[in-house]
Design goal:
It is built from six helices and three strands, in the order H-E-E-E-H-H-H-H-H. The mean pLDDT is about 95. It is globular. The chain is mainly α. The longest helix has 19 residues. Strands 1-2-3 form a three-stranded antiparallel β-sheet, covered by helices on one side. The two termini are about 20 Å apart.
Length: about 140
Amino acid sequence: ELGFNYAAACGVIANIAVESRFDPAAVGDYGTSYGLCQWHNKRYDTLISWSEANSMDYTQLETQLWYIKYELENNFSYVNKRMIKNIVDTRRGAYSAGNYWCINYQRPVDKLRRGDVRGELARNLYWYDLAPLAGR
């Protein structure tokens, strides 16, 4: 749906793994963050209102995946463009995607350090774990 190559997808997956361990019901930051991407405060509220406006249940995996797409197309188009056009489909690209996604989409506290960690995870774990699925 998003048009991301394999390396870009590894970067997104690495971030979701760290944020929520792939649990769409994950709660963090003392109840102020929720879901796959640990949407925080206003973004959490917007997830709920967007889901309601689209007759979807914000607690569901599929809804949250569609919400990521919505955010990328509407509020984070620069992230979307970079992930599609500038991430090279290589192991090094997986690092770049994980790092960039963390810093520019997730935006956690200490985002530069965490971006590096997530880039390493994308490059050193997900690139190899998912390679057979991508025919690599």
